[in-house]
Amino acid sequence: MNRKEGNRIWFKGNPWPNGHALKESRFYGVLSEEGIHLHLEIKTEDYYADQGFEAATEQAEEHDRKLEEEGVNDDWKMYGAWMNYHSCHIQPNKRVILGNKEQPFRVDQLANWSFQLDDPPPIEETWKGLDFDNMYFHCYVLGHDAVAHHKIDISSAEKPFHYHIDWKGKVALAYFGDEEFRYTFTIHIRDIEFEGFDGQHRLDLRFKDEAKQQSYWYDTRLDRSMEEREQELRNWMAQHAHIPDDQLIFSPLERSDWLRFI
User: Fold this and answer.
1) Cα separation of 4 and 1, whole Å?
2) What is the mean pLDDT of residues 159-165?
3) d(C-alpha 223, C-alpha 226), whole Å
4) Best CA proximity match to 117, nearest among 33, 2, 192, 38
5) DSSP letter at 201?
6) Which residues pair with 165 in a beta bridge?
7) Among residues 30, 140, 141, 161, which is most buried (max CB within 10 A)?
8) What is the DSSP string of 13-39?
9) Do residues 167 and 118 make contact, with C-beta atoms less than 8 angstroms apart?
10) 172 vs 138: CA distance, rounded Å
């Protein structure tokens, strides 16, 4: 988790021209037998965090009343709409490939990397609307909306395995039924650590009693030794990346196993 001053998101035209602080940003690779995939995720503080809820509420009443008197009917510009949904979360849906057997991943490729995603966004063939299942990111902005037209620039920071990320994109207020990307956002993340490589999660649903269908979650990693789990991840890494084995340390956590840089 990375939480630093200056890490912010701006939604152009919303009631907060100075943007919103990020309370969490994460940047790492997801390792599987198919390859290494990018995980890039942000969560904001409450939209009104800088001024506090009570002060924002007082300001909202006057601000939104004036807009209504002017005939403005756009939730994007209304304090009330943003305060109702509290905060933003953008997380991966469809993975970006960092490396595989054909093109192994190298850490230095992150040092000066620019790419675009969902530009244009995918369209579902049957009814010609947005294909949400095949978009690269899920989001929660003013409800469960859509983000696309991403341009993401990654550059090196001073410390090893730390980076600056500049991310621009557009929002469609899909939660309200609007699938046009009318609005823009900009994200600045500074000095974020590339956390390492998250192995596939091993939680499966098992049944305690087949007759009663009482279910529970079972961590299938427990069926294997720690050494076997580590070796599996190192084998995957060797197939999909050019990283010396002695630069990575095995780190078992509660929900998944990791390989991290030493």
Assistant:
1) 10
2) 96
3) 10
4) 38
5) P
6) 154, 189
7) 141
8) TSS-TT-EEEEEEEEEEEEETTEEEEE
9) no
10) 12
pTM, rounded to two decimals? 0.91
- For residue 1, pLDDT over 50 is answered with no
**Backbone CA torsion sign across 146, 109, 164, 259:** positive
CA distance 52 to 54: 6
What are the tens digits of pLDDT across the range 215-246? 888 888 989 999 999 999 999 999 999 999 99
**b (16+ CB within 10 A) / e for 237-257:** bebbbebeeeebebbeeeebb
CA dihedral over 17, 18, 24, 29, signed as positive or negative? positive
How far from 223 is each of 63, 216, 252, 256, CA to CA, in Å? 59, 16, 14, 14
